[in-house]
Amino acid sequence: MTGGDLGKTNEPLELPGSRSGDDPSVVIVGGGVIGCAAARELAPDHRVLLLERDQIASGATARAAGEVTMEPSYTDYPEIADYATDFFRRYDGTGTFEYTQTPSAELVTPDREDEARARVDRLRKDGVEVAFLEPSEVEDRWPQIDPSSFAGAVRFTDTGHLDPYTLATTLQSDAEAHGARFETGVTVTEILEDGERVTGVDTEDGAIRSDNVLVATGWRVNELLTPILEVPIRPYRTQCLVLRPDSSLSDAFPMGWIPGEHVYFRREGNGDLLVGGWSFAEDDPTAASERADEAFQDHVAGLVPRFLRADGRLRVVDGWAGIDGATPDTRPIIDSPADAPDGLVIAAGFHGRGVMSAPVAGRLVRCLMTGEDPPVPTRPFSLSRFDSRSPDFEFLSISAGGD
Ligand SMILES: Cc1cc2nc3c(=O)[nH]c(=O)nc-3n(C[C@H](O)[C@H](O)[C@H](O)COP(=O)(O)OP(=O)(O)OC[C@H]3O[C@@H](n4cnc5c(N)ncnc54)[C@H](O)[C@@H]3O)c2cc1C
Question: Looking at ligand 1, which atom is closest to the CA of residue 61?
Fold first, then answer.
């Protein structure tokens, strides 16, 4: 199913409280990084209206660490990883957006060494630029990493970081330059349909007609979809801490993660250390604390001295938590499901990787709405890959490229 003929104007449909003016050909619900990326893709040849209940990039996007670890996250689909990282490299310098390519070190504990070495051999055969570094090589390359507790490190080169808010607002500016309209403080309360296709959305301020609706509402996706269909997406909570060493980390400090420890790390622009992760399913997302937990701080306090060589003390200077949407296999749903009304597209459940996935998501949404050929495989994102659509599934924690 595709989103139908976007150029065609349906017979006017009288809706209670319907707004006047040109009907948008696409309504995007949700102004996070995914909605903004889709708006940018569609704006050049569609009348795009994006509706955001709060402010642009105020949900999970505002809280993201900005890690781009598509290469280690999509080793089974390198073309998906390449698509995203190529985009960031080319987009670098657009407005104030910057992408900083930085290699990553997956620190391997001795119990995981055999698996990691076998994985590196397999990935190298598949053409992925990855290497297993012995502890002495880790030390030579990154003197501020202490490898003595580790069997070595898996090095990935095509990773990096960016500022998520700047990415989202730059995508927004691009979309607006092509005529897209962004309205904030507008909550969509219902997706309207006539039994066959979507006809628009209802909002607290009245209905808006459109033949195509993208639901990009992050972890809130089922709030809006439930009368029409259910998707296996549930909210989870994840956190970040920023630590300040007495002497700043060097520019060469890598990004990284430690499988089994539920954390990832990277250097902040000012030489601080950002540590993120510690993710758990969250059944009450609206009441969840936005601060980092003490348990996470304790975990980080025990873990960081195991891998960081830093003289003196490390002080916690910032910390926060946020909610994102999780799926059973940790990959998002980007689809116009066959059993949904025509014209309805879903892009949600980014499971901690929505910022880095935004270029892929934006383009795939466009392809779903226009029928254009997708530039990357879509199977990993289809709703039909799941046998059950229940949001009551076991949450899998991931940390950047690892588990
Ligand atoms: C602490 C933390 C660290 C993270 N680190 C990274 C990272 O390093 N790299 C990475 O790639 N990802 C990271 N993520 C994940 C990333 O932030 C998300 O996957 C991504 O932001 C999802 O984008 P989104 O647009 O789907 O959702 P959101 O940013 O949550 O946007 C959804 C928007 O929809 C709006 N909305 C919801 N319902 C309605 C409605 N009914 N009407 C109108 N508007 C509505 C919301 O207000 C919200 O603004 C992190 C997340 C957290 C919390």
Answer: 21
Q: Averaged in consecutive runs of 10 residues, what is the pLDDT profile of the chain (403 residues)?
A: 34 41 91 98 98 98 97 95 98 98 97 97 94 98 97 97 98 98 98 96 96 98 95 98 95 95 94 96 97 96 94 93 98 97 98 98 98 98 97 86 52
Predicted pLDDT at 401:
55
* 380 inside domain: no
CA-closest candidate to residue 112, choices 72, 74, 151, 71: 151
Residue 142 lies in a domain: yes
Structural domain of residue 138, as residue ranges?
Answer: 104-156
User: Can you tell me which atom of ligand 1 is nearest the CA of 237?
Assistant: 53
Report DSSP state, residue 273: E
Task: Give the nearest ligand 1 atom to 355 CA.
Answer: 11
Q: How far is the CA of 247 from the centre of ligand 1 (A)?
A: 33
User: How many C-alpha atoms does 185 have within 13 Å on its Cβ side?
Assistant: 0
Ligand 1 interacting residues, C-beta cut-off 6 A: 29-35, 51-54, 58-61, 63-67, 187-188, 216-218, 220, 224, 238-240, 276, 322, 324, 348, 350, 352-356
Per-residue HEC secondary structure of 152-191 comes to EEEEECCCEEECHHHHHHHHHHHHHHCCCEEEECCCEEEE
pLDDT at 184: 98
Does residue 259 fall inside a structural domain? no
What CA–CA distance (Å, rounded) separates 278 from 356?
A: 19
* Ranges assigned E (strand) in 204-358: 206-209, 213-215, 234-245, 255-258, 263-267, 273-281, 314-326, 333-335, 344-348
Domain count, the chain: 1
For residue 377, tell me if it sits in a domain: no
